[in-house]
Specification:
This protein is of the alpha+beta class. The chain has helices at 18-34, 57-71, 87-94, 98-106, 123-150; strands at residues 2-3, 40-47, 49-56, 77-78, 84-85, 113-115, 118-122. It has five helices and seven strands; from the N terminus they run βαββαββααββα. The longest helix has 28 residues, at 123-150.
């Protein structure tokens, strides 16, 4: 897992080991079951000394998501939403070619700014576009499924 805090770059996250997958599977279930409805939670850490820390519930929900992804064998990267991406990084995030991404930028579908002669995109803008694209895909798929039902094309 790669966590970026002050750095504004994205590193490829390695896949978790078999042991990490097992630990993540168990701990994600246990942690999810303990989440309350308040704004914060207290965690007791045992690492030689015992210490209690208070953390935001939103951070624990993110941790549950991270662990759930690790439990499925996926590497996880964390970055701030205002992190800047190169066009290649953004294209990789959207699973499209860089030239196609550039055409989306030029058509005004994704906001960007220039640093010198290079285009830079905020993670939040790329993810916003991805959510819109995914929503449009879901609508189109539902329409196709409805048409198939009307034409009795089910198997």
């Amino acid at each position: 897992m790669t966590a970026t805090r002050k750095r504004q770059t994205v590193d490829a996250a390695p896949s978790p080991s078999v042991r990490e997958v097992e630990l993540a599977r168990t701990s994600s279930r246990l942690l999810a079951a303990c989440l309350g409805t308040g704004e914060t939670a207290r965690l007791r850490i045992h690492n030689g000394d015992e210490e209690t820390i208070e953390v935001p519930i939103s951070a624990l929900r993110m941790l549950v998501d991270i662990l759930a992804n690790m439990a499925e064998g996926r590497g996880v990267s964390i970055m701030p939403t205002d992190a800047e991406l190169t066009t290649q990084m953004a294209a990789d995030l959207l699973n499209v070619s860089r030239p196609y991404l550039v055409s989306l930028i030029e058509q005004g579908h994704i906001a960007f700014h220039k640093t010198g002669t290079h285009r830079r995109l905020k993670v939040s803008d790329v993810l916003k576009y991805k959510e819109q694209r995914d929503a449009q895909s879901r609508v189109a798929l539902e329409e196709l499924a409805a048409q198939a039902q009307e034409l009795d094309m089910g198997y």
